[in-house]
Protein 1
Amino acid sequence: MMIYPRDDERAIRVQRMVDDWAASGLLREEQRERMRLELQVDYRRTNLFLRLTLFLFAALIIGALIGLAFVVFDVEEATSSWLMFFAAAATFYLTQFVISRYRAYRHGVEEAAAVASIVFFAIGCAMFRGDFSSLLAFIGAAGASFIVFRRFGYLYAGFAAVVFAGLIPFNYDVFYTDTPRRLLAAVVLLVIFGLLRERRKDHDPDFPGDLFGVLETTAWVAIYVLANFKVSEWLSIPDEVPLFYWVSYAFTWILPVVGVMLAIGDRHRWMLDANIVMAIVTLMTNKAYLNGVQKPWDPIVFGVLMITIALGLKRWLASGPNGSRGGFIAERLLASERERLALAGGATALAPGAPQPHSHEPPPSFGGGRSGGAGASGKF
Amino acid sequence: MGAELTTIDRLDNWKEAGVITDAQHTTLSEIVRRDRFSLFVELNALLYIGVVSVVAGLGWTFRDYVTSLGDAAILSIFGLLMPVSFGYCFVRGPSYSNSEVESPSFAFDYILYFACLVLAATLAFIETRFEIFHGWDTHLLIAALVFGVLAYRFDNRFVLSLALSTLAGYLGLKLGFDTLDSERLRIAGFFYGAFLIGIGVLLKRLSIKPHFLDVYLQLGANAVLLATVSGVFDDDTGWGYLAVLLILSALSIYLGIRFRKFAFVAYGTLFGYAGFSIKVLDAAGDAILALAYFVITGSIVVFALVVVARTFGRDE
C-alpha cells in the first residue's frame, strides 16, 4: 500500500494541471487561486533542482556511511551480505521515517534513501551465496524496486523493476544461447505489459493510471529492444538462427505499428511517443538488418520522409472538422507543450551537433560535416 | 475509505460551485479525458529530426561525391537552397519585436533552422575547397554572428542555441572536462561563459528579447563554473582557482536564491563542493578520513539545502 493517500497524489497532479490551464489562458488568475485552495496537501515539497541536489548529497552520505562501516569494522566477505541487508532495511525505514515525521514529498533525501535500499538489497542478494550471483542480483533488484514503487510511488523505481525483471532471464545459467533468453524475457515483459495495461485502464486518466501508463510503455519498449537485434547486440549476442532472425526483423515493424494503434485507441501519450521513436529506430536499422550498404543520401531520404509525414499529418488534421480528426489536433493546447519545445530549443546548444574543439590547424580535406556548429564538427 | 475524487469529479464540483463556467468545464473536461489530444510536440519533433537529417545527408553526399559532382554543382545546390529558405523566412516572417513573437506558421522555425544549417555547410564547403578565410576562425565567427542576428530577428531559440554553440566552437572549446585540459581553453571557457552572462543580462536590461535570458545564464554559468573547477586539478594554480570557484559558487547560490532561480543554487552547490572536495581529498590520503569527510560535509550541505528549500524553494 502506498504511503501517500491516493487523494493527495491526485490533488498534487491536479494542482499542476490547474497551473498549466491558467498559464494557457483557459482559467483566470482568481479561478486558479480558488481551485488551488481546494487542492492543498500537507506535505513539504521543493523545487526540482533542489530536489536533485538533495538527492545527490543524501546518496553521497549514505554511500560513505556504508563504506565507513565496511572499512571500520573490517567486514568479512561472509557477513557483508547480511550487512547489506541490514543497510537496505535501515534505509527503507529511513525513507518511511522522513516521510511520516517530516511530511516530505519528492524532497530528494527520502528518495535517495529509498534508492539506496534497492541497491543495498540487490548487492546483498548477489553476495548471499558467497560468490557473486548476477541472477540473484537482478531478482533482488527487481523485487526491491517493485516494493519501493508500491510503497512510495517513485516512478523510477517502477521503471527499474520492469527493466530488471526483463533482464533476469539473461542471467539464468540454464540458458547457454541467446534465443531462449530473449524469448523468456519477451514473455516476462509481455505479461508485465498486460498487467500494467489493465491496471492503467482501471484508473485512467487519474493517478495511479499515469504511473502504470509509463511502466506499461517501459515494458513495451523493452520488448522492442529485445526484438531488434541491431540495437540489443550489446545485451546478448544473437544466435545465428535464420528463422529467429527474420521473425525478429518482422517484429521490429510489427511492434511500432501495433503500439501506435494501441496508443491512438487509448490516447496514450507515452505509448504514442515511444512507438514513434521505435518506428524511427526501425527505419534506421532496416538496412543493417537486410545487410544493405548505407548510402550517403539515406539521411536525406529519411529526413524528407519525416518532414513529409509531419507536414502531411498537420494538413490532414487541420483540414478536419474544427481542425480535428477524431479529437486529434495539430495545434498547441497547453502552455506546457510550448515550454517543452523551448526547453528543447535551449538544450540543443549542448546536443551532439555542437562543435568539436576548434583547432587552429588548417583543416584536412573535404570530409563531411555534422549539423550544428556551423559544420565545424566534421572534416569539411 | 471515502470515495476518491477524480479530476472530472473536481471539475464537476467547481462547475456546480460556480468557480468555472460551463464553457470552461467543457473545454477542461475534454482535455482531461483526452477527447482533444494535441500532437503539437510530436509533429515539431518530426520536423526537427527531418531537417537535421536532410542537412547531414547533404553533407555526407557532397563529401563522398565531391569529385564526380564538382564544386559548381554543389555550390549551385547550396546556392539554391539558401535563398529559397531564407527568402521564405523574410517574406513570411513577422515583423521584428523586442518581445516574444509567435511563429507565423507550423514549419516556419524549422525552415529558418534548415537555412542556417545550409549556410553553415556552405561556409564550411567554401573554406575547405577554396580556403578563402585561411582558417576556421573567420568562418565560425561569421556563422555565429549571422545565427545570432537571425535568432533575434525571428525569435528562434534553436537558432540562438546554434549561434552560441558556434561561438563556443570559435573560442575553441566544447563544454566538457576532457577538452578543458589546457590553460588556454580554460580561460577561453571562462570568458565565453562570462560573455554570455554579460550579454544576456545587458539585453534583458534593454528589454531586447528578455525571454532568451535563461539560455544565456544556463550556458554561461555552466561554462564559467566548469572552466574554474577544471583549474582546481592544476597542481600549481589549483588553490587560486579554488578561491575563485568558491566565490563564484557563493555568488551563484546567492543570486539563485534572490531571483528564485534554483538551478543556480544547485550549480553553485555542486561545482563548489566538487572543487573543494578535490583539494581536501588530495590532502586527506586515507579512506576513513575521506569517507568521514563525505558524511560530515554532505550532512552540512543537506542541512543547508533543506533550510533553503523550506525557506525559499517550496514551489515546484
Protein 2
Amino acid sequence: MTLAQATMIDPPVVSWLGIAPELVLGVGAALVLLIEVQWKPSRTAIAWAGGAAVIAAALLSVLLHARIESGDGISTFLPFAGMIALDGFGVFARYVLLAVAGLGLLAAQRMVQEAGTRAAEMVALMLLATAGFSLMAISANLILTFLGLEIGSISLYVLAGYVRERGNSDEAAIKYFLLGSFASAVFVYGVALVFAGTGNFSIQGVHDYLDGVVVFEPGVILLGLALLVVGLTFKVTAAPFHSWAPDVYQGAPAGVVGFMAAIAKIGGFAGLVRILVSAFPDLAGDWAPVVAAIAAVSMVVGSVLAIVQDDIRRLLAYSGVAHAGFILTGVLSGGEGTAEIWFYLAIYAVQLVAAFAVVAAVSGPSGSRSALSDYAGLAQRQPFLAATFAVILLGMGGIPLTAGFVAKFGVFSDAWAAGHEWVVIVGVLASVVAFFLYLRVIVTMYMDEPAGEAAAAPLGVRWVTSVAVVVTLLFGVFPGPLLDLAGRALPL
Amino acid sequence: MTDWYMLLAAALFTIGAMGILVRRNALVMFMCVELMLNAVNLTLVSAGRALGSLDGQLATFFVLVVAAAEVVIGLAIIVAIFRHRDTASVDELSELKG
Amino acid sequence: MSDFLWLVIALPLAGALFLHFFGRYLREPLAGVFATLAIGAAFVVAVVAAVPFFAGTGEAEHLVIWEWMPAVGATFELQWDPLSALMTLVVTGVGTLIHLFAIGYMHGDERFHRFFTYLNLFAASMLTLVLAGNYAMLFIGWELVGLCSYLLIGFWFTRPSAAAAAKKAFVVNRIGDLGFLIGLMVMFATFGTLSFEGVLGRAATELTVGTATAIGLLFLVGAAGKSAQVPLYVWLPDAMEGPTPVSALIHAATMVTAGVYVVARSSPIYVESPIASGTVAVIGAITALWAASIAIGQRDIKKVLAYSTVSQLGYMFMGVGATAYVAGVFHLMTHAFFKALLFLGAGSVIHAMSDEQDMYKMGGLAKRMPITATTMGIATLAIAGIPPLAGFWSKDEILGALFERGGIYSALWVVGLIGALMTAFYMTRQWVLVFAGRPRWDEGVEPHESPAVMTLPLMALAVLSVVAGFVNTPFRFTLEHFLEPAFHGVEMQHAPEGWGMFLVLAGLSTLAGVAGVAAGWLAYNRPPEVWRRFQEGFGRLWTAWEQAYRIDDLYGAVVVAPGRRLAEFSAFQFDQKVVDGAVNGVGALVYRLGSALRMLQTGYVRNYGAGFAAGLLVVAIWLVVRGMS
C-alpha cells in the first residue's frame, strides 16, 4: 500500500475461529507453564494438559473445516488483512500436525516422566512448535510464513538440546540452531527479494503480480525464489541441504526426535507447496527443474547414505532425506499433486513418530546412541514392538498393501503425468535401494541372536506404534477415504 | 540510489554467510547470522522506500523480533555448551558425523 | 442382497488373527473351540446367504467389496452363485466338523493354538479362493492355501520327514502355479481383464479355439499341481506327514479340489476347446487308474487314503473334462463327505493305536472302536459305489456322462469302471485289515474308542455320506437345478436319459463295486499268512504297487538329480559369477558410494554450511541465468 492509502486503512476482518487452533495451542503452552509454577502438579497431569490442548485444537479444526466447506459465517477466506488463508489446505495440514503432536506427546511419555521439574517446558515447547508450523501452513503472507517457521524452529532448537547434560544433545542443539538460523536468514532474504521484485508479501499478491505483467527484470524475483526454495528444502531435509539432519536426529533426545522430524517436515512442505503452487505457478517452468534435481539428489543420496549407517537414528534420518525427495516429486506436477503430497506426508509423519518411539523404547528416551546391533533379536525380546516396527518399516519401504505404497504410487504417477519421467525412474530405483535398508533392520530384528535384555516398552509407545500400524495397513488397503480428504486439501 | 543500498545489503548478507563458513567460534557464527538478518532488514527498508510502500518497513519489525528471539535461544544454548564443555568452538562439537 | 457375504471370509480370518496374537493365553480346548466357532459361524452365514439358491429364486451375484486401487484395476470382489455357494458350504461345513474333531485329536500338543491358527487361516484362504470374483483374487487364495498347506504339512517340523514333505509339496505346487500364472497372463492379454464377468461372459464370442486351448491347458497344469493329478501327484502321499485333521480338511475335502473348481469355474473356456477338455479327462482317467492301483499295495492307513484321494480326484477330472460339470462338482461334494470321514476315522484309529499307521499291525479293532468301525464302513461302501450311498450316485453320473459322450470317452468309461472295481477292492482291504480279523497289535497298545468330540463329527459325516447322493439322482436333479445359474449358457454333458440305460449303466458300476468289495472281503478276511500269500501271488506287480511304481526314484533320477545339477551349476557357476557378481557389484557400488558420501558428513558445522551454500549458489545461479535468458 502506498503512504496515501495508509491513512484511510480499512479495519481488517478478524476471524477468531480461523486461528483458534493456533490460539489454543499457544494459550495451552502458556497455561501449562503457569500451572506448573502455581500448583506443581504431577508430570502425568502436565502431559494430559498438553494433550487436552491438542485435542481442543483438533476439535476446533473440525469445526472450522465444516465452516469452510459450507461457507457458513465466513465473510472472507482471507481474514486478518489477507494474512491467513481459510482453506482445505490449512485444515488438512492442521489435522496432520495435531495428529503428530498428539502421537508425539504419547511417544514422549517416558521422557516427560524423566524430565523432572522441566516436564512442563517440554510439553509447552511441543505445543508451541505445533502452533508455529501450523501458522506456517495457514499463512497467506510470506512474512507470516517466516514467523511461523521461526516459532516452530526455535522451539525445536530448544527441544533438540533439551537434555543438554547427556550425550550429544548440546551438539545437536548448536548444530541445529546455527544451521537452522542460517537457513531461516536465507529464507527471509528470499522474502525480502521477492518483495523488492514484486512489491508484495502476500502470496496472492505475488501471484497476481507475476500473472499480470511481463516481468522485464525477473532476476531479483528469481533470486528470491531460489532463496525461498533453498530455505524451505533445508527444513524438509532435502539433499544437498540435509547434512544437519542426521547429526541432530542422532544427538537430540530420542523421545522427541520423531516429533521434531515429522513436524518440521510437515511445516516445511506446507510452506513450500503453498509458495510454489500458489505464488509462483507462472514460474513453474523455472523452478520445476530445480525441484526435480533436488528431489533426485535427495532420493539417491538419502537411500545410499542410509544403507551404510550403523546407527538406527542416522539410518532413519537419511531415509527421511530420501522420503523428502519422494515427496518433492509430487510437487513437480504443480497443484495437481497436492492431494498425493498430503497423503504421503500424513502417512510418513505418523510412521516417523512411531519409528522414533520404538527407538526411544529400545535405546532409552534421552540417550544419543542407538546402534543397529541393539535391535538384534528384538523379535524375541519384545515381539509386539518388533512386529509393529517391522510393519512400519515395510510401510516406509512402500510394500504393496501398505499405505507407503499408495503414497509413493501417488506422487510418482503425478510426476510421470507431469512429464518428469526421469525423476520417477530415479525414484523407483532409489526405492529399491531404500527397501533393502528397511529389510536390513527387519532381518536384524528377526534373524539375529538377541543382544541383551530390553526394558518393556512404555504403554504410550505401544499406543503410538499400534496407531501407526493401523494407519499403515488401513490406508494401504482402503486408501480411498484419506485420499478423498487429502483431495480437498487445496490451497486457495 | 536504492540499488546501492540493495547491493550493500547483498554484500552484508554474503559477508555473514561467509562468516558461517569460515569461523569456528559459535558466538561469532551466531553474530554472522545476525548480520545476515540485518542485511535482510536493509533490503526490506530500501525496497519499501523504492516502492513507496510501508510494508517493507513494517516487515523489518517482525524480522527484528525474530532476531531477538533467536538471540535469546542462541545465547542460552551457547552458554550451556560453554558451561558443559568449557569451549565455544563448534569444531570441538563434532562427535556426530558420518 | 448378500452384502454380508464378506463375513464368510472375515470370520475365520479374524479367528486366525485373534489366535495368532492371543492364542497362547487360551487354555487348551479354548483355542480349538474358538476356531471351531469362527468357522461354524462362517458356515451359518453361508447357509443364510445361500437360502435364495435353495429356494430356486437366487441369481448369480457379483459383489464388489472394495476397490483397492481403481487405477490399477485391483478389486476385491466376490462371486456368489450356486457353484461358489456349494463350495463354500462344503468348505465351511466339513471344515467345522474337522475343526471339532481336531480339538480331540490335537489334545496335548504343545502348539495346540498354533494349529488352530493355521487351520482358521487355511479356511479363510480357501474361502477367498472359492468366493473370488476375479481370477487375480482366486490366484491369491490359490497361493494362500498353498502356503497354509505348507505350514500344516510341516506342522511337526521337528520330524525331518514332515519338513521334507512340506518342501516337496511346495516345490511341486510351484510347477503347477507357474502354469496357472502363465495362463492368467494369456487370459489378461486376451481379454484385458481378469474378472469372471469380463472373461467368462465374453469367452463364447471372443475366444478363438487356439487361445481357449492354450488357457485351458495352462490352467490344467496348475489344476494338476493343486489337485494332485499325474504327473504332479507325488506331493500328496507325502503330505500325509501332516496331522490327520489336516489331511482330512486340506488334502481330501477342500484344497485339492481347487483344481476341479477352477476347471468348472472356467467352463465357458473349456467348452470352447475340445482338446483342452479332452486332455483334462484323459489326465483324470490315467490318474484314477494309476493311483487306484498304487492304493492296493499300500500298508500305511493314510497312504491308502492319499492314493485313493488322488484316484477320486481323477474321477472328478474325468467328469469336468467330459464337460459334465455338474457331475464333477457333485462327486467333489460327496467325496468331501466320505473322504473326510475316512481320514477322520483313520485319525481316530491312529489316535487309538498310539500313532501306529501300519495296517498290518492292526486288525480286530471293530470291537474296541465300534463307532469308528461303523462309520468308516459306511464311508468305505460309499466310496466303493454301493447303492444307495452317496458315492454311487455321483460316480455313476460321471460314468454315465462319459458313456453318453461316446468316442474316446467310451474308453474312459471303461477305465472308470475298472477303477471303480479297484477302489472297492482296496477300500474293503483297508477296512478288513484295520477292523476285522484278529488283532496284530504291537505289545503295549491298548486301543480305545475316541472321545465324543471326535466321534460326533464321524457320525455327522457318516449321515452325509449316506444321504448326500440323493440331491442328484436320475429321478430328481435337484443339484443340477441348483447349479443351473452358475453354468448358465454352458453346454453340458449329461448321463443318458431313460430307465433302461440307467439300469444297465448303474447295474454295471454296481457290479464293479460289489465285485470289488466281495473280492476284498474274501481275500483279506482270513489269517495273515493267507492274505500275505495272496499278495505274494501278484509277484513283482505287488512290489510295484507297494512301492508306488517307484515314481519318486524315477523323478529323483530324471528330474531332481539333473535339476539339482543344473541348480548347482547355476548356483556355483552362473549365479556366483554372473548374477551374484552383478548383484554384489551393484551392492558394492552403492556401499562404496555411500561410504564416499559419508566422508562429506564431517561433523563440522562450517562444512555443512559450505555444502548448504554451494547448493544455494547452484540453485540461484541456475534459476537466475535461465530466467534471464
